[in-house]
Specification:
By secondary structure, this protein is α/β, with parallel strands linked by helices. It has two domains: 8-235, TIM Barrel (Alpha-Beta Barrel); 239-266. Helix content is 39%, strand content 14%. It has eleven helices and eight strands. It has an eight-stranded parallel β-barrel, surrounded by five helices. The protein is globular, with a radius of gyration of 20 Å. The chain starts with 7 loop residues before the first helix and ends in an 11-residue tail after the last helix. The relative contact order is 0.11. The structure holds 3-methyl-2-oxobutanoic acid (KIV). Residues 25, 44, 46-48, 86, 182, 184, 205, 215, 217 line the site of 3-methyl-2-oxobutanoic acid.
Amino acid sequence: MTKSKVTINQLFAKKQAGEKLAMLTCYDYSSALIMSQSEVELILVGDSAAMVMHGENSTLPIDTQTMAQHVRAVSKGAPNKFIIGDMPFLSYRKSLDENMQAVELLMKAGAHAIKLEGVAGNETLIKHIVESGIPVMGHLGLTPQSVNQFGGFKVQGKSADDQARIIEEAKTLESLGCFSVVLECVPDELTQELVKHTNMITIGIGAGAAVDGQVLVLQDMLGYSSTFSPKFLRRYLNTEQLFLNAFNAYVKDVKEKKYPDESEQY
Ligand code: KIV
């Protein structure tokens, strides 16, 4: 059964009512079809697709066309969810015209909002996107597109200076019109302070419990890999083992000539 459509107004109403929001990433039609029947409110078609769908070791290699294809597939499977299209590395660091072409591709593929990382240098673009009627989600803390500057996927905002900077960045995002911000891998004490200074919908991943909602990468929370184990990750399924069991049961049936049986033939 398809649930009714999630709107930005409902998201703010839930925040106001103190109801936590649940966001997951999703990249493909089949998963989106299942997610559409769940209580998940927001779907992020994240550039983490580069890593979990395409096997890259960072989010940098994915381009806007590929992201738009993922957004299109997800929007066909889960049109009832609030879908955020992630702007890939450098796609929003060009001329305003080129940046807006990237935004247009994601929105016309079916996104209801876009997300981009960081603040410095993005101010004019964020304002322009918001003034074009498009909700913008920011992303602060561990912004994976800056992995080479950070020297790895490391917790951010540990020092008092960094914490003060990140809080200022959040205030700037709000003043530019962002409706929401993702906080990634920052200490809980920073999150607790930051949420006091913003009316944006705060969504965390490895950012503690003080945020309005949480996001996890689908493949991580479904346990596709037993080796990727950041502290914040809770696995809700052991997909790796379930898949292996199914693959091996199938192989056994084929080898033992048990599949197909008579009822499975024409
Ligand atoms: O691309 C992504 O999956 C993300 C989340 C980790 C927030 O940006």
